[in-house]
Amino acid sequence: MIKWNLQQFAGEKTEKPTPRRLQEARKKGQVPRSPELQSALILLGSILIIKMMSGFYIDNFLSYMKHSLTANLTLQLTEGNAGRLFADMGLVSVKFTLPIVAIVFVIGFMTAYLQVGSHFTVEPIIPKLEKMDPIQGVKRIFALRTLVELAKSIIKILLVGYLVYDSIVSEIGSLSNLSRMDIPSILSVVGGITFEILWKSALLLLVLAIFDFFYQRYDHERSLRMSKEDIKDEFKKTEGNPTIKGKIKERQRAMAMRRMMQEVPKADVVITNPTHFAVAIQYDGDKMEAPVVIAKGTDDLAQRIKQIAKENGVVLVENKPLAQTLYKTVEIGETIPQELFQAVAEVLAYVYRLKRKV
Predict the structure, then answer these.
(1) Comparing 222 with 246, which gets the higher pLDDT?
(2) How far is residue 138 from each of residues 22, 128, 131, 133, 223, measured CA to CA in Å?
(3) Please, are residues 340 and 293 in contact by the beta-carbon 8 Å criterion?
(4) Is the separation of the CB atoms in 267 and 295 below 8 Å?
(5) Cβ(279)–Cβ(334) under 8 Å?
(6) Which CATH architecture has domain 263-356?
(7) Segments making up each domain of the chain, as ranges
(8) Chain segment 80-139, per-residue pLDDT in tens
(9) For a designed S-S bond to 17, which of 3, 21, 241, 305 qualifies (C-beta 3.0 to 4.6 A apart)?
(10) Is the entire prediction scored with pTM above 0.90?
């Protein structure tokens, strides 16, 4: 018969990470994020903005080329003219690149925010000596994550390569006639083929990036998995060692008990069961709106309350139903509820008469 040693499985990372473990990883910059998704959306957005503004780009490019090949050729090469030419070139470059840079910034920021949220940390860029360990470097090279990234890169290259090849082959007839076309027609054909290749490539990369996004979340959760022993250790750190916590509670109960016993001599009366319950009541008409329970207990504690009351001249009154009701319904420090006013008032009146206060 095979005997299983359950302790050998205690160190296996089989449990999902706790919220505290996830929070600590987030502080260190370890968050599930897919750079592939960000790159694919940036590429797709850039292609769309170029397509939407293709007329603007073509008109400005042709106008700039026409001006450069006509008016600029007759200019004398002076310092002032050279500066103006460079300024015009810079202005055209800014007009061409500014929309693309803006869309890249907006998409990059929104994609990162939706994946990570508002989070800033410099922990990942802090130099660490263990990162310079050559043995650890070799392990990282052959780690599962590295192999997965290599496989993803190979798959992307093969799929995009096939897509480019298929697009060019399907347009081979148009490309063979380029030599008989004028410049606008050539630009139109080449631009159309290029846009089709870029559009299809961006959509393909976006589909792959979506799969990568879910893989990154799975891999992040897997890398932070915990063993049962890890969860126990974390519980001890956050909630405290159960043994120590029990001792602290025991001391707190003992201190509360001592404080309660110190209040018994201040009571006006102790209502008893007579053996199982004891409830000490105090009432000062000048300071209190209603009588207050200052101590209560059962069994041994009830006997201790009665003993202290006798030692300090506090009157004991036996009333079984009232003692049980007060013990079960009124906590220490609380006033007597209205429905018990009459019964408690009769007891206090009896005590006052007994002490010849009335």
Answers:
(1) 222
(2) 27, 17, 11, 9, 19
(3) no
(4) yes
(5) no
(6) 3-Layer(aba) Sandwich (3.40)
(7) 18-67+87-119+133-228, 263-356
(8) 767 777 777 778 788 888 888 888 888 888 888 887 776 666 565 566 655 565 665 555
(9) 21
(10) no
